[in-house]
Amino acid sequence: MKVLIDQEQISSRVISLGRELANEYQHRPLTIIGILAGSVVLLADLIRAIDVPHQVGLIQASSYRGKTTTAGALHVNLDFMPDIKGRHVLLVDDIFDTGKTMQTVLAQIRELQPLSLKSAVLLWKEEASEVELTPDFHCFKIPNHFVVGYGLDFNNEYRHLPFIASLEGTDLV
Ligand code: 5GP
Ligand code: MG
User: Fold this and answer.
1) Which of 30, 67, 89, 106 could make an S-S bridge to 25, C-beta 3.0–4.6 Å?
2) Mean pLDDT of 28-42
3) How far apart are CA 93 and CA 137, in angstroms?
4) What total of structural domains would you count in the chain?
5) Where are the alpha helices (DSSP H) in the chain?
6) What is the pTM of this model?
7) Is 97 tagged catalytic?
8) Coil, strand or helix at 127
């Protein structure tokens, strides 16, 4: 395992993104929606860095990766989606890889007609993108490697690591 982004780098970047978002959404009713489970660590830190009133909700999207690192069919569950009528929505995820998760979830939320809809991610694998869309806000661009930590898992492990590390070779079996 190789550390790509350490705890301090993450913390200072999340705080600066929080300031940026506070400016953007000042005086606008904001709801931040995190995508389970990968976004929870970022979500917890980010919402405390956004010094304007906002509501928080969670939805679930899973691509049935199972024990592999390649994505399967995407399943989106909006059962716990809060009421966003008359509100601006910021959708938060751990990583923008192919972009298909973000694209699919954004399309479903757009149907609920929020006042505006934007996306924020911790990591952006720019080279891996398979969609036209780009994230509106991101903390770090990373190369096309499989990474874990700060919410990101492999086989449901490693989410608790306070840094981002890339898994290579034998780590992945
Ligand atoms: P996308 O739909 O953009 O291809 O993938 C987004 C989802 O795939 C993320 O929410 C995350 O769950 C998973 N994912 C993509 N790349 C990585 C990675 O490098 N590490 C981990 N742990 N998950 C990833
Ligand atoms: Mg995810």
Assistant:
1) 30
2) 97
3) 11
4) 1
5) 7-25, 40-47, 100-110
6) 0.93
7) yes
8) helix
Q: Residue 141 C-alpha to ligand 1 middle, in angstroms?
A: 13
Q: How far is the CA of 103 from the centre of ligand 2 (A)?
A: 13
Supply the CATH number for residue 29's domain: 3.40.50.2020
Task: Flag whether pLDDT at 173 surpasses 80.
Answer: no
CA distance linking residue 39 with residue 94, whole number of Å? 5
Catalytic site residue from 93, 97, 136, 153: 97
The rounded Å distance from CA 87 to ligand 1 centre is 27
Q: Ligand 1: does its nearest atom lie under 6 Å from the Cβ of 41?
A: no
Domain extent at residue 39: 2-172
CA dihedral sign, ordered 15, 21, 27, 33 = negative
**Tokens representing 148?**
């874990």
Residue 146 CA, closest ligand 1 atom number: 19
